[in-house]
Each structure stands twice: as C-alpha cells, then as structure tokens.
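Re: beginner question about structure tokens

> Can someone show what the tokenized structure looks like for a real chain? I only ever see the sequence side.

Sure, here's an example I had lying around. Input first:
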Amino acid sequence: MNVMMCMRRFLILWASLLLVASVQAQPVYISHCLGACPDVSHPETEVVVRHLYAAAIDPDSGLAEWVAYRVLPDSVGVASLLPRYWQADNLVSSSELAVEESDSPALVQPDLSDAQDREYRINEISFDTGDQGRLTPMTSFAGTPYVEELNYLSNMSPLPQSLRLGSWSRLDQAINELTADTGTLHVISGPLYSYSGTTSDSQLPTSYFKVVSDGESVATFIFSSELPIHANHCDQTANLSQVESQLDRQLLPGLSGLNQQDLAAALGCQR
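And the corresponding structure tokens:
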C-alpha cells in the first residue's frame, strides 16, 4: 500500500506539462522551467520534455543546448547504486548522435564515474567514456521512480571527468541540501562554446553553465572545461547576463529583478 501511494504521489507530482490553448496560438507551459523556458538557438531546435527535465536539442549535433529541471525535497536521493547506461531518446527526431555500442553489458557504477565501455560520436567529434556526463544529475532525482530517464542521450553532454566529479558535482550537492531546507529550486544548465551558443562540427564546449533560482533570487555559475577536480564551485560564480550574452539568448525570459546575491550565499558561497 505504501509503495502504491508513493508511486501515485510522484505520478501526480511529476506531470510535466500544463497546456493552455487559444484560438490563435498554443503556448506550452513546462513545469521544469521557471515561468517560460529558455530561448533556443534556431527554429529547428527541438524541445524534449521528460518527467524529470526538459532539453533543447541542437538539430546539427543531437546534443542539448540546455536542460531545465526542478529539484524538490522529495526527489533527492542516493544515486550510487543506480544503473548508468546511455539510451537513445526516441523523442528526438533530429539527433545525429551516433552511439557506438560494445558487446559488454550495461554497468552499475557505485563510484559515480559514469564510465561506460563505449564511445560517442557527434558528427566529427568523438569523446570517450571519461567525458560523458549528465546535465540533469541523478542525485537530485534518485528519490523518484523516473530516474532512469536521466540515461537518455538528450541529457548527455561531453563533461570532462575532472569537472564532473569535482566542482560541478559539489554544486549539485549544495543545491540538493538547500532544497531539503527551503523547498523547490529551478535549474538550467548546458554547454558554452567559445565562438557561439551552439555546437559545431569540430569543437567541444569550452565551459558549462548552471543557473539556479527559487523564483526570487538567482545564482549563476560558469565552469571552465579545464577546471581541476579540486576547484571550488563558489569560485565559479558569475552574472546571469554573462551567460545570456555568450549564448545570445535569454535563459529566464519574462523574469526580471531577481536578486543575484542571496541565493549564491545560501548555496554556501559567502562573499
């Protein structure tokens, strides 16, 4: 009985879409996003909505331009023993991401390394098993019945291992801890490129961003792809305008006047 009640609660809690239709237009409100979802790079960009996240997929590379998700106190859990094997996302029609499978079975990885006996090719870019990361983290959703969705390729980014296991992961932990204390947090994260806001045929991301908001305050972080594993996530704080300027589009459209200091402090980044 308790299991059924838990499943029913999460089935209701993680309903992802609220659709509001009008005669002239059909705006879509996605609960993973705070207000409206971020802008996309061009009209061909697909937005995929899963129970735990929404992702804008670059039609040229098949990689996420951004993912948006909301962390709730009941969604956080222990992810160390969860299965971690990548799966094609059948909702993505434009993806050119080719998965080179091996004969080895899917692995269960207690060390959170995300290592797979596979390689991934994005057009002419190939990145190995050590540089595959999830933009939406498993630890923030290990308490839900939908956590295996985070293994979809729509949630994958070529995150360097030293970053993924270092300051990136420590920020995820700080978000989870703050959520347990204060309630829901919305997060947007994704890659940044030195030349534009989208992928090309020959370049990997030079940095990655994570924007956290409780609806009143916002904290922004930019992580260089070359950060060492011991780097402090608080040393990577930035302004929202820095990320939006580099992407050349808005991440929190329709929202203005958000405090850009208090939330960073609540995440342990005292100035």
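Each token stands for a local structural state, so reading them left to right follows the chain. The domain at 32-266 is CATH 3.40.570.10 (Extracellular Endonuclease; Chain A).
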